[in-house]
Amino acid sequence: MTSLVSIGAAQLKVIGLNPQHVSQASETRVPGRATFTGMDYQLTGIGERTSRLEVLTLPFVFGGMDALGWLQAQHIAQLPVLYLRLGANLAADNLGLVVIRELYVDEDRFHPFTGRGRSLNAEIGLVFV
User: Fold this and answer.
1) How far apart are CA 47 and CA 45, in angstroms?
2) How confident is the model over 4-56, as pLDDT tens digits?
3) Which of 42, 51, 75, 77 is the most exposed, fewest CB within 10 Å of its CB?
4) In this predicted model, what pLDDT tens digit does every residue of 97-111 receive, in sequence order?
5) How is 20-68 classified by DSSP, letter by letter?
6) CA 68, 6, 127, 22: dihedral to nearest 10 degrees?
7) Full-prediction pTM beyond 0.85?
8) Are 101 and 80 in contact, with CB atoms under 8 Å apart?
């Protein structure tokens, strides 16, 4: 099965922990000051680049808990890991090194025998390093 997104050792796939939404944000620092002829701007460099992913799985049907375990381990260890996305002709696009800054996990409809949620949603906040 082809991975749609790879964050270090965590493989996000169609069957398993499935990416539902991806967003990216970045900023550039451009301070300005007023002059007699208008504004004078100075380009002082790129600011922080971030990405946010929303993922979903039904663990008892599709699995995906292994990928969640990798995400949690990389987040706790604050490891810089490679961030890849599926590209054209099944080739991966290397988006760079990231650290998992935030990891939110929501479980719904708990299974009576295992205590795990039947539906699992997670939100992953990445920062490029």
Assistant:
1) 7
2) 999 999 999 988 899 999 999 999 999 999 999 999 999 998 889 999 999 99
3) 42
4) 999 999 999 988 888
5) EEEEEEEEEE--EEEETTEEEE---EEEEEEEEEEEEE-HHHH--HHHH
6) -90
7) no
8) no
19: phi then psi, degrees, rounded to nearest 5: -70, 130
Place of tokens 């991966």: 92
Residue corresponding to tokens 């990216």: 24
Q: Which two tokens stand for residue 102?
A: 């935030």
Side-chain-side CA neighbours of 3 within 13 Å: the count stands at 16
d(CA 39, CA 86): 43
Which residue type does 72 have?
A: Q
Cα 15 to Cα 1: distance, rounded to the nearest angstrom: 8
What letter represents residue 8's amino acid? Answer: G
